Amino acid sequence: MEWTRRDLLKALLALGMGVVAPGLASCKPSSGGEVKPPPIRYGRSVCATCGMIINEAKYSAGAVLAEGTGLVFDDIGCMVLYFRAHPEAKPLAFFVHDYPTEAWIRAESAFYVVSPRILSPMGYGIAAFAQRSQAEGFAQEKQGQVLDFAQVRVLSLSQAQP
Ligand SMILES: [Zn+2]
Questions:
Q1: What are the start-end ranges of the H helices in the chain?
Q2: How far, in Å, is the centroid of ligand 1 from the Cα of 32?
Q3: How far is the CA of 74 from the centre of ligand 1 (A)?
């Protein structure tokens, strides 16, 4: 995770310069290659849905559209809401972070824990896991439930009061 530390440094240097980056970045897949998650500059990149600065890797998410545009979000709930509000958008791939390791993982194959006790940035209370067993343990701890991505995409989302 060397780049994260570097980006944090850059973000610190950029403090006071105001917010300039919209939640857009180009990340067209290289010819025939694997689609890469869109870059997030923590403390600087802005959520494409709510406009908040993205600070926490473990709750943030990203999507790559068919034309190569990358979208980044501070909360998995914000990504879900973005694609409900933009049915014309053609997502090529969705990405979330594995909650324990903060590594990017494909959203389609992740396990999600949903609980009002998970204090995600916008309060949707969603955390993603690469391993089902870890998701189940966390769900027990937070009195939540384990869902797959299809279930998360149709979840009734409201911002929990902390
Ligand atoms: Zn957001």
A1: 2-14, 76-85, 132-142, 149-153
A2: 31
A3: 5
